[in-house]
């Protein structure tokens, strides 16, 4: 506090001067005995009445005016404890990086880290002036724009009010990169990035945040990075299979799991427990008995920094989707001296789905639930039950590949390929030796040239009505389809007019065949609907007409992107998904890295007080001036009223 400020505040002491002067006038006179005074009647104490305050209200108003005048002279600017940026006198463009990841749910003194960061963002926006620009980037993975750059500070404050904490992972690097693009080209001279985060992105050993940045990066609110009172453990998955529940756990460090258990609950009843392994990532197996249709929940005992990830629904084992291969393994094994050629090709591609050979196409719907794709090589038609199940499989998002061959063309009575192909087909010699690379789909690339001289023993000829309903992916040299595909419901059907058997051609031994399989597997992976996925990853519903998703936070909005409906679960827990009237359960699971609450290092410049701090300078002189004017006006009214009363008397 400066000397001038102290001197100005000293003026406020003058408010006591009139009062003390008045008190001096009220001293009692010395009394002396005088006998004749008893003969004189007593007179009223007029001097004492004059010493009293005639108008206490007027005296109080004048005293308040003196105090207000002292405050106005002492400090037109006062300091308060709130977050604000240091200003150089010019207009400012600021991008606020607000971390909405799961680690920001850690609680201290009854308030989450996100709530503190949200309040800090409000204070920064409140410190901006007319002509300043603001943008907001959310650092939950994947990083995304919460508000594009704008000089409408009211709109910025409104947008901030609508931002809530989520259970996403953390993507600070991506958020800062986006923030730079939002403010780098703005006309304001002073451009900077403000990071409001606990910096717990699971990369505590990575390069310091803000290093090498061409724009100033201010990592504000160091209290967000204070160590949590306890570490954190989370349930990543709880899968039920064969009378047991396998629970996968992740902890920030091993000691957090010490002495804790995982309990399986049916409502409020505990039906099984197991100790947590004292590791950062591990599994606990809990034996359970009884009805498999019960809705069970896995829950960690004890407490930790984040309570929301200590509980997860138990689902029927939900591993990665598999790819089923339907073919005659006996014939193929003899020809190749090992596994069928299609299985060898899938192994060579190192697909991230399990390849499961099955002897025939499924004829029960439950037999298809584990598969994202089914590949049938030269099947002798499908029975009515198989056709119904396969059609339902495709409608629900599965991908079916049918390689037609000699046996397909000679399907027995009652077996056919409806509803995928409605007409009869014919096996005949091929009038051309191979495919036409120039018309191949883009995913073949240079490998398409390897399919130009297949020299097959024959091929299937489709009816024109069936050909017209499919999109060609690869054609024979004469224009007939070699590989084609067709969308149905949320899935897709692929057909080939040449089987994969090496007895018919060396189609399956060419590089182009691997490119075809890779595209097929990619399509299956994209359309697969995993029962459990990481929180924050979008759920795509290609081909669905109506989608409703209800989760822990209520109904979720869906958007259309690329012609497909999409929903993003941002909160952990179970979701009820209704697709075209059919309900299914999905689970949004936590990300293991979010249990590591260790903050990432930052550069010294990113925490410099020259960028800002927790003390702000606020101009309140106009408020004091208005109060002083109001006091003067009230005094004027009181004096006028007093004169009017005296005149009337």
TrEMBL record:
Matching Pfam families: BatA, VWA_2
UniProt xrefs under InterPro entries: Aerotolerance_reg_N (IPR024163), Class_I_gatase-like (IPR029062), Double_TM_dom (IPR011933), VWF_A (IPR002035), vWFA_dom_sf (IPR036465)
Coiled-coil stretches noted in the UniProt entry, renumbered to this chain: none
Lineage: Bacteria, Pseudomonadati, Myxococcota, Polyangia, Polyangiales
Origin species: Labilithrix luteola
Highest taxon in the source lineage: Bacteria
All residue ranges annotated as the Aerotolerance regulator N-terminal domain in the record: 1-76
Swiss-Prot/TrEMBL keywords: Membrane, Transmembrane, Transmembrane helix
Transmembrane residue ranges: 6-22, 58-78
Protein name stated in the entry: VWFA domain-containing protein
Residue intervals of the VWFA domain: 94-198
